[in-house]
Write a structure and sequence with these properties.
The protein is an alpha/beta fold and 458 residues long. It folds into 3 domains: 2-141 and 267-327, FAD/NAD(P)-binding domain (3-Layer(bba) Sandwich), CATH 3.50.50; 154-264, FAD/NAD(P)-binding domain (3-Layer(bba) Sandwich), CATH 3.50.50.60; 348-451, 2-Layer Sandwich (Enolase-like, domain 1). The protein is built from 14 helices and 24 strands. It has helices at 14-23, 38-43, 45-62, 79-103, 157-160, 177-188, 208-220, 275-278, 313-327, 357-362, 378-383, 415-423, 427-431, 442-451; strands at 2-8, 28-32, 107-110, 113-117, 120-123, 126-135, 139-141, 154-155, 169-173, 192-196, 224-226, 230-236, 242-248, 251-257, 259-262, 266-268, 282-283, 286-287, 300-302, 342-344, 349-354, 367-373, 389-395, 400-407. Strands 1, 2, 3, 4, 5, 6 and 19 form a 7-stranded mixed beta sheet that branches. A 5-stranded parallel beta sheet has the order 8-15-9-10-11. Strands 20-21-24-23-22 form a 5-stranded antiparallel beta sheet. Helix 6 links the parallel strand 9 and strand 10 (192-196). Helix 1 packs parallel to helix 9 (313-327), helix 3 runs antiparallel to helix 4 (79-103) and helix 3 (45-62) runs parallel beside helix 6. The chain is globular and about 65 Å long. The N and C termini lie far apart (66 Å). Disulfide bonds join 40-45. One of its GO terms (molecular function) is flavin adenine dinucleotide binding. It comes from Candidatus Alistipes avicola. Residues 340-447 form the Pyridine nucleotide-disulphide oxidoreductase dimerisation domain. It is found in: Cytoplasm.
Length: 458
Amino acid sequence: MKYDIIVIGSGPGGYVAAIRAAQLGKKVAIVERAEAGGVCLNWGCIPTKALLKSAQVYNYCKSSEHYGIELTGEVRPNIEKVVDRSRGVAETMNKGVQFLLKKNNIEMIQGFGKIKAAGRVEVEGTEYEADHIILATGARPREMPFMPIDGEHVISSKQALVLRKLPETMIVVGSGAIGSEFAYFYAAMGVKVTIIEYLPQIMPLEDEEVSKTMERSFRKLRATVLTSTTVKSVKVNAEGKCDVEIEGKKGAETLTADIVLSAVGIKSNIEGIGLEELGIKVERDKIIVDEQYRTNVPGIYAIGDIVPGPALAHVASAEGICCVNNICGVHTAPVDYSTIPSCVFTSPEVASVGMTEQQVKAQGIEYKVGRFPFTASGKATAAGDRDGFVKLIFDMNDKLLGAHMVGLNVTEMLGEPTLAKTLGATAEQIAHTIHSHPTMHEGIMEASEAALGAAIHL
């Protein structure tokens, strides 16, 4: 069978690339060894958000008296039903992707795909031909030798999604988006959580002020946060618990927990797909591509978690569209990696785009900051959730360099500063844009006014 384009992998990079190619009139097939939608839809972004929504509802129930609502009887989570709902949400989205692929006449080839030569892909013993092959094989949780994952005592994010019984204690190693979200979920469910982070701050990619706010937030949940701490080893003791040897600010010590969640990053899925045989260039487990996502072998492309850059679903989708547009001769601007929005769905939420204050300082850029605390927000006060702030960083020409937000629903506010940065909007333009009232996103306008020295509500 001959195709114009074969995409290997059906995650948010792969299926978006396939659909875009079909829209441009190409004959397309997509190869997938597991579920349509990849990790994101089935074992990542989507089911995780379903768990976090259950945690939010549980928290509202526990604090209902604050809102004048009296509940009788004990409010407690049923983890099995919470997990079942999460799996149901993932299944719904999986069916949605299958529908989109079918609607666009994209053939789904089930199995493990391997490039045999330029223009040839083998799937479970059958060969297929294509003028162009796009690799979008994604990534999996990284496993460290001192912390081997057994799926029961030491688990990855995949097992963390489907625990049918809440442990009494859990140690989360790593405080990036994955580690922080699961730490929040289990702490909110009543588990005694300890977060261990090797670097000096949790959420190490975020602005320092954001990290400090989130550390306080975790402590309010009675979670323990240990930064600048190294995990030396994890061993299962005779009682079936995990002994975790660490070295931190207090020196060496051993912590014990029912379960250890390893959230120390991801590993690209590039093994066994034919890279070595074809001489496709790889550096530190990432495939090297140009700005059109072409590898060094003509007709073979790569996008998503397997290429350098942020390992985020929306980045993979953007790369997929850019790649296909270029294949099909449609003019498209390269992906702007300086304006990638990032979200962490803890409570409060974290949202950011652009440079942190630390990065601006390190580059010697003159700058000014506008802040707006949600303690001054009418909407946040009415919602009973005043934690957090908006922080906007501008250069001396008032162009937006970075936006960093912590608070209720701030992930839904991130589009505005992302667009502002993309378009080169100034503090004055943002401040003079009328924002609806009362809303959380008024904080963006207020922070812009603060940067101009014209704050009204502070």
